[in-house]
Every structure is written in structure tokens, then in C-alpha cells.
Write a structure and sequence with these properties.
6-stranded mixed β-sheet, 8 helices, alpha+beta, Beta Polymerase, domain 2, single chain
């Protein structure tokens, strides 16, 4: 698995906090275990792509080949459990065609800023191509193509979706109940699932985006 070097040289260390360096290394170590099968891109998103705090999770962004998403998600969760890397948060996972549709439709400058801050670990050139498509959306999307290209391995991923997706939603409800009952409501999240994506949409992130929009004068 060819992994990009995302770490600054020694002369640049003053520009990067030790916390960020350690969390990037943590993500690097995790992603290097995932293997290439079905994986188009893996990187770091969320607070670690900006300036993380000590207690922040390490948000991982995965893009899978069309029809392979839930196979990749299962593998990623198994690796996380086996390696006991509890600070890894698989918060953003999507198929290649969904990523193409999504990035080409980005118009919000704050979402664009988040996309530009993603730190590629695997699939750097793939992600650069996605960024180049921002704002180029036309009426034709890739979603129909994904359905027409289903093959035996994609069928397996579809079966995994039918099995895993309900479990992910139930797990999210349980975690949120625990967070709310312990007075940590701002850490709650919505679990968004489809055959083409798995997203943990956190209340903390939505609140942050609202504050950033208010501060920049951007309205929905």
C-alpha cells in the first residue's frame, strides 16, 4: 500500500503542534493497515486537519470503489477493533461515484475550506482530482452508473449494507442516549447511511459550522 508522506521535515516542526503530529501519526499507522482492495482514498478530516485538542478523536475519511463501500467499512471497523485504536472515528465514508457527485456540487465556501483541509494519506492524486471538480456539477450524476455496474463482489457489499447499516444506526442511538444522560449532549450525532455513504453528522460540527457562517456573514 503506497502511503503519502504527510509529515513536515524537521525544519518545519515549529509550524506544527506536537498534538497534531502525534494524531497524524496515529491516523497514518491505522490507514497503513487497511490494504488497497476496494479503497480509492483514505485521509484525515475533522479537527486534526486543522488544530486539534488533546482529547479530540481522529476522524478518518474513506472513499471506496463503487459497489465496495460496505466491504471497506467492515474491514475498517474490524481493523480498529483488533488494533484497539479507540481514538479512530470512521466519520465519513462514501463510494467513488457519490464523492464525485458531492464534490462537484460544493458551493458553500466553508464546506470547500473543510474539503481543502483534508489530509490525504492514501490516494493523494485521486483526491486532487476530486478537488478539481468542485463547482463543475451538471445535470448528469454518477449514481445511476453505480447501480448498473453491480457484479458479484458488489452484491456482497450490498448484503453487508443490509446487515451492517441497521447495526450502525442502533449503535448510534445507544451512544447518543449515553451522551445525553451523562450531560454530553453537544457530542451527540446523527448516523446517516445508504448504500453509497456512511456519515456521522455530529452536533458539535453543525454548531461549529453555524458559528463560522455567522462570523463570516454566510447564510444558508
Amino acid at each position: 500500500m503506497e502511503i503519502a508522506n504527510v509529515f513536515p521535515d524537521q525544519e518545519s516542526t515549529t509550524l506544527h503542534s506536537e498534538i497534531k503530529r502525534r494524531k497524524m501519526q496515529y491516523a497514518f499507522d491505522y490507514i497503513s493497515t487497511l490494504g488497497e482492495s476496494g479503497l480509492a482514498f483514505a485521509g484525515i478530516s475533522g479537527s486534526v486537519s486543522y488544530e486539534p485538542m488533546e482529547g479530540d478523536d481522529v476522524d478518518i475519511f474513506l472513499i471506496a470503489d463503487d459497489g465496495r463501500l460496505w466491504e471497506v467499512i467492515l474491514r475498517a471497523f474490524i481493523r480498529r477493533r483488533v488494533l484497539r485504536m479507540d481514538d479512530i472515528c470512521l466519520s465519513l465514508c462514501m463510494s467513488s461515484s457519490y464523492a464525485s457527485d458531492y464534490y462537484s456540487s460544493i458551493t458553500d465556501p466553508l464546506v470547500l475550506d473543510d474539503a481543502a483541509h483534508v489530509i490525504p494519506i492514501y490516494g493523494r492524486s485521486y483526491y486532487a482530482d476530486l478537488l478539481s471538480r468542485i463547482g463543475t456539477r451538471n445535470d448528469r450524476t454518477q449514481s445511476g452508473n453505480e447501480a448498473r455496474r453491480w457484479r458479484p463482489r458488489q452484491v456482497i457489499s450490498g448484503i453487508l449494507f443490509l446487515w451492517l447499516a441497521p447495526l450502525m444506526v442502533i449503535k448510534g442511538l445507544i451512544v447518543n442516549h449515553h451522551l445525553m444522560s451523562s450531560g454530553r449532549g453537544p457530542e451527540s450525532f446523527r448516523t446517516l447511511v445508504s448504500r453509497r455513504y456512511f456519515i456521522l453528522d455530529s452536533e458539535k460540527y453543525r454548531t461549529l459550522m453555524e458559528k463560522r457562517r455567522a462570523g463570516s456573514g454566510i447564510l444558508d
